[in-house]
Specification:
The chain is an alpha/beta fold and 267 residues long. 40% of the residues lie in helices and 10% in strands. Bound molecules: uracil.
């Protein structure tokens, strides 16, 4: 039965009910889907040496690599960035690595005090072996430039260092596998401030389940046993999202100004 309600009123109703983000770009007809017979679900018995990965933010569950060496184990043994890069280049626990050309480690100045974390490399990043050098990287550079930062005064990396084929989002398990590396990366850089670009980086590093709309624009403390003190962290929209949704640049601009103000307060 068609709803006798104006779209704007329906939208208001959603907002009042607390809905603040769409989970997909296309509407899904759940009635049609549930009318179809369910496909049989094949449940593989858990391998004895492979604990179930709980796909939640900042999972502590170690994801075993093929040869049994976990990312957590490798990362914990790294005492500097060169060792971390080498450990990641030698890691064999994620199938993404086999289809990627490069392990995209980082770019910029690790001494700068500002560390930016994105999601995962795209095609151009994979080709050049550097983060944020494609289209969204150009916008990232402009965003940083707008608050007086560049690749000499900021350090840039990603949660996942290998390109997911077809530029899809990394899965929760892929993020979970790589998380010990990026956490150790933050510990070794020991920045004064973290900027998290997009929902994947924000929810993984902040261990929060909310979407980017709720996480952005707020200060969080990023704490980890290998850090001398918690690092103030702010999430904002990913430049790729801003390229698709220019209207959101206003909020991103607000976030960048708050970051600038915080940097000025402590300089
Ligand atoms: N998007 C990211 O999140 N990281 C990159 O390096 C490039 C695009």
């Amino acid at each position: 039965m068609p709803l006798d309600i104006a779209p704007i009123d329906l939208l208001r109703w959603y907002l009042d009910a607390g809905v603040d983000e769409a989970v997909g770009e296309m509407p899904v007809d759940r009635f049609a889907a549930s009318a179809k017979p369910a496909a049989p679900v094949l449940v593989a018995p858990p391998a004895p040496d492979r604990p179930t990965v709980v796909a939640e933010a900042r999972p502590i569950v170690a994801v075993p690599a093929q040869d049994g060496v976990t990312a957590a184990h490798l990362a914990a043994g790294c005492q500097d960035l060169a060792q971390l890069r080498q450990a990641m280049e030698g890691f064999d626990g994620l199938s993404l690595k086999r289809t990627a050309i490069s392990t995209v480690f980082a770019d910029g100045n690790p001494e700068a005090g500002v560390m930016c974390i994105g999601e995962a490399p795209g095609q151009e990043e994979d080709r050049q072996g550097l983060p944020f050098v494609g289209r969204s990287g150009k916008l990232l550079d402009r965003m940083l430039g707008s608050i007086g930062l560049d690749r000499d005064s900021a350090y840039i990396t990603n949660v996942v260092p290998w390109r997911p084929v077809d530029n899809r989002k990394p899965t929760a398990e892929e993020v979970a596998t790589c998380l010990p590396f990026v956490i150790r990366h933050v510990e070794l850089v020991d920045p004064k401030l973290l900027i998290l670009f997009g929902g994947a980086a924000a929810s993984a590093l902040l261990a929060r389940h909310e979407g980017i709309n709720r996480l952005r624009g707020r200060w969080f403390d990023f704490s980890s046993p290998g850090l001398p003190r918690p690092v103030p962290a702010m999430a904002t929209f990913h430049p790729a999202y801003l390229l698709r949704t220019p209207a959101a640049k206003r909020e991103a601009w607000r976030d960048l100004l708050a970051i600038r103000a915080r940097l000025d307060m402590h300089s």
